[in-house]
Write a structure and sequence with these properties.
Layout: H1 28-48, E1 57-63, E2 72-78, H2 116-136, H3 147-174, H4 176-186, H5 210-232, H6 237-275, H7 283-288, H8 294-310, H9 318-325, E3 347-354, E4 357-364, H10 369-394, E5 419-420, E6 426-427, H11 429-439, H12 443-452, E7 483-484
Antiparallel strand pairs: 1-2, 1-7, 3-4, 5-6
Helix pairs in contact: 1-3, 2-3, 2-4, 3-4, 3-6, 5-6, 5-8, 5-10, 6-10
The protein binds benzoyl coenzyme A and fe (iii) ion (2 copies).
One fe (iii) ion binds at residues 160, 221, 224, 250, 253.
């Protein structure tokens, strides 16, 4: 890798311990703070990162520039030696605060005092999810269905690690002593820990198998995309710049999820066809083929969709209103929307639980911003589901995956505490208990999927429940040795 001493034209300086494109060498205070944080990070990575593969050589991409064209370089890397760095999209001198009460001001290069606590909160919540996902996924390497998939898992993991670095940089650079404390806290909480859990619900759930991993990267990384898109609108320019670069990495995570589920579906349909099974609900027969039946794939989608919806917070939120009014967190595609960007009088329809009924209610748009972002998210999810259904349709099988009602299986917001079916009907506890296992993976479903999770680490081979990808990574074939396994 060539080291560059300047950081012009988006190039990343790899000559320093912490690669960056922000002239960190000239900012000795922050450099020192990050160098002090680094060993704790490596410690965390070694104990909570991919278990059993820390000495393997993984064909990873590393960012060498933030130039949209050709920013990545591929090579074999041992994960603990991955060059996690600080990469920000270029600064635009003319950028403005584009929404809220300060609309029209020059974008802030420092944290406005009155927004300090809110901004720090947003940075910490965002930062907390990144290591959480690595922790959730740490056992998956052992059951990888191919070297290709294993490599994709590890690519996602190192990039989530870098996303943590991105938020830690903001904390160290802009939030002083309490920023440093928060940065340390990010290495102390643990996904699923009873005493020190991660901050948001979905990040304390387990990711027990590869279908869950693909659903997670499809549904939950997509929440990541939506949240980063709204933070990329921030009037606090360093936040915007760092999120903009993170979004370029996020695209690959969602690709891994969408194609992973798609390949599982494809393999199931193919096996059903070959065995002459027409009925997708003939679950015993389908499972006997060693593939995941489509109704179980639907259940996994129901689970991960509902958990991910919880990540948007309450439908009606004064936090969201304050974040927007303060110019800290915008809407998806904020600058493309044609309105006053202040939302002082606008209304927005919100699905609520009122008088024992599920109803659409007009609410002030400002407090309904979580709902709005969630609506944009649901649309984005639907596109992927439609592409999955094309695979099923092409195989000539009569089955379609659907997104459940947004009121189904919720733990945050309007619908927490009520039982609702995937098609949006209110249920009593008895009705719910009777149907639950038809809608959300049961322990039997989990055990069946687990039985399929046999490692398949031979070059060019794929586990029986998933088809080979259409194309490899970096123009390599499906039989490329994406991971050279040296077990620790
Ligand atoms: N679990 O006003 P409310 C990603 C709390 S994923 C637990 O309704 P608000 C990634 C809330 O904090 C993207 N607690 O919500 C993906 C608040 O507590 P306080 C991560 C929750 O504040 C895959 C209270 O309930 N980024 O990047 O409008 C792999 C009332 O909250 C939850 C972000 O989330 C929950 N689900 O919105 C790797 C962006 N929901 O303050 C990475 C930054 C709410 O009263 N975060 N609460 O103690 C935010 O914008 C907001 O914090 C939220 C919540 C959207 C999460
Ligand atoms: Fe991330
Ligand atoms: Fe991600």
């Amino acid at each position: 890798m060539t080291a560059t001493s300047t950081t012009s034209a988006g190039a990343v300086d790899y000559s320093t311990k912490i690669p960056n494109n922000i002239n960190l060498a000239d900012d000795s205070r922050v450099l020192k703070a990050l160098e002090q944080w680094h060993p704790g990070y490596i410690d965390w990575w070694m104990t909570m990162g991919p278990e059993g593969f820390q000495t393997s050589d993984v064909y990873l991409r590393t960012a060498i520039s933030i130039d949209p064209k050709g920013w990545a370089k591929f090579d074999y890397v041992k994960m603990p030696e991955y060059r996690w760095g600080i990469l920000l999209a270029p600064q635009d001198e003319n950028r403005l605060v584009n929404f809220g009460a300060s609309r029209g001001e020059k974008a802030w290069q420092e944290v406005p005092g009155e927004h300090r606590a809110s901004l720090r909160r947003l940075v910490v919540v965002q930062g907390d999810t990144e290591p959480a996902s690595v922790e959730q996924q740490r056992h998956l390497g052992t059951t990888a269905p191919s070297l290709y998939d294993m490599r994709n898992l590890f690519q996602v993991n190192v990039e989530e690690g870098r996303h943590l670095w991105a938020m830690v940089y903001l904390l160290h650079k802009y939030f002083g002593k309490d920023g440093r404390e928060e940065a340390d806290g990010l290495l102390q909480r643990r996904s699923g820990d009873a005493d020190k859990p991660r901050m948001l619900g979905a990040f304390n759930e387990t990711t027990p198998d590869w279908l869950s991993f693909f659903m997670f990267t499809f549904f939950t990384d997509r929440d990541g995309k939506m949240q980063l898109e709204s933070l990329a609108q921030s009037g606090f320019d360093p936040m915007s710049r760092t999120c903009r670069f993170m979004l370029t990495e996020e695209a690959h995570h969602m690709f891994v999820g969408e194609t992973g589920v798609s390949r599982a579906i494809e393999r199931t349909c193919e096996a059903m066809k070959a065995a002459g099974i027409e009925d997708p609900y003939d679950i015993a027969k389908v499972r006997a083929l060693g593939v995941i039946d489509l109704p179980t794939i639907q259940k996994k989608a129901n689970l991960h969709f509902s958990l991910s919806l919880d990540l948007f917070g309450s439908e009606i939120s004064t936090n969201a209103a304050n974040f927007y009014n303060g110019g800290l967190k915008g809407r998806y595609m904020e600058t493309k929307i044609e309105d006053d960007h202040a939302l002082t009088t606008a209304k927005y329809p919100v699905l609520k639980f009122v008088d024992g009924q599920i109803r659409m209610v007009e609410e002030p748009a400002l407090t309904a911003l979580n709902m709005r972002l969630r609506d944009d998210y649901v649309k984005d999810c639907q596109g992927g589901v439609n592409r999955w259904n094309k695979v099923i349709e092409k195989a000539g099988i009569k089955f379609a995956l659907t997104l459940p009602s947004v009121a189904f299986h919720r733990h945050i917001g309007e619908f927490k505490g009520v039982k609702v079916s995937p098609d949006g009907k209110l249920l009593n506890e008895t009705e719910w208990a009777k149907m639950r296992d038809q809608w959300i993976p049961s322990s039997d479903d989990g055990a069946f999927i687990e039985s399929l999770m046999q490692p398949c680490w031979e070059r060019g081979k794929y586990a029986g429940w998933i088809s080979a990808p259409k194309v490899g990574i970096d123009n390599k074939g499906g039989d490329f040795e994406y991971v050279k396994i040296h077990r620790a």
